[in-house]
Amino acid sequence: MEKFHVIIVGAGPAGLCCAKHLAQNGVKVLVLEKNSTVGPKVCAGGIPFQAQKELAIPEHLVQRSFPLQRVQTPWQKATIASTEPIIITVDRYEFGQWMLAEALQAGATVKTNSPVKAITGKTVQTKETTYHFNFLVGADGSSSIVRRYLKIPTQKTGVGINYQIPTIHSDMEWHLDPSCFRSGYAWAFPHRETTSVGAYAERNNLSPRHLKNNFLHWAQANYFDLQNTTPQAALINFDYQGWKFNNIFLAGDAAGLASGFTGEGIYPAILSGETIAKTIIDAQYKPIRLADILRRHKSHQQIQNFFCGSKVICQISLEMLVLSLRFKLLPFRLLELY
Length: 338
Prior knowledge:
Layout: E1 2-9, H1 13-24, E2 29-32, E3 46-48, H2 49-55, E4 62-66, E5 68-72, E6 77-81, E7 87-90, H3 92-106, E8 109-111, E9 116-120, E10 123-126, E11 130-138, H4 145-149, E12 157-165, E13 173-175, H5 178-181, E14 185-190, E15 195-202, H6 208-221, E16 232-237, E17 244-245, E18 248-250, H7 252-255, H8 266-281, H9 288-307, H10 311-326
Parallel strand pairs: 1-2, 1-11, 2-8, 5-13, 11-18
Antiparallel strand pairs: 3-7, 4-7, 5-6, 9-10, 10-11, 12-15, 12-16, 13-14, 14-15, 17-18
Helix pairs in contact: 1-3, 1-8
């Protein structure tokens, strides 16, 4: 039985960031990834520009950057402008491959095609091998096996539907329309050679089937050509119930750190992975930055709960939100977890 000080389940941004920081500090760490390839995920690929700077994401990974954000409702339009980019877009495959290279260069071991079959005591079993760990990190997304092992239920989830269309759209757009998406929204996030067009909504507020049907009608009405483009969908877990459980940790979507209001999750995933690594290395480490994220996560949840009331309340509230953005009474960063 091979032994590792830390085993991380999942080679997404949270898992690879955690692995990199651990390996850089001489910790023997193994990352187990169920898929054959690291990187691809159903995701619009948007990251706040301030997060890009903090995370030192290299320029060559930036597909597009946007100092303007277009926000639209059935009654009004708003343009939020900044002297520097507000959000950048990245290709999740390229981004994942970069994070993988960083983790491997630091000395981490990463095994693909290694879905975890069982967790027992201090061991993790894959289809071929049993590994021993001192610490276990669940960074395996919204359907986390580590979370299930901890018997933590997941009830608050969102659904994201994405089409990557072969058209270069000019603007980054957010469309808030409760008649189609309830408290969620549709988006158009341009990349270098394509545009991510999709929709997000809380699953308990709008079923995936209704979300897809409503989105298709919306896309047709807004002249987005989805012909010959394969849709992808994914669950987004925002049911946060903790990240540290003795010698077992949860990161990113496995911990429910995505925003229930916007579905944003890349930056919280990376930050949680780094925080877990620093906590394993130093038990006295104070996770101040993660505490900030958790406060904003709670605020987003309160906003989401309010908007999930009646359609009339949701419509009026979203209109007031956009009106406040138009007149700069609220910062656009209200919508971000960063």
